[in-house]
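Go through this pair.

…
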Amino acid sequence: MKKLSLLVSALLICLTGVIYALSDGVPVSFTLRNGSATSIPLKIEKVMNPNLSPFSNSGVTCEEGTRIFYKKDGKWIEILVVTEELEGEVIRVDKILKEKGLR
């Protein structure tokens, strides 16, 4: 019985490693902030399509490499790619849009 339990434990450890290796990236948690007076329509790849309300914050956790898009004139434009460096940061989406000339 002890050998069976050791075998099952070893199998679970191996499976955990395989599942982790198959994931797309490292989870990164950060905050999207809209400091403007107008809503900002976004699409977060493989996560959701939030509308950032005026003067609001939205906590997000997604995998490294996830792309974030802004909708302008009916087209989705990539504005950010998630990296590990964003962990714990507050991202001013309104400022990114202004810097890119999208608002």
In short: Residues 5 and 11 are 10 Å apart (CA to CA). Helices lie at 2-22, 93-99. Confidence is low (pLDDT under 50) at residues 2-22. The domain at 25-99 is CATH 2.60.40 (Immunoglobulin-like).
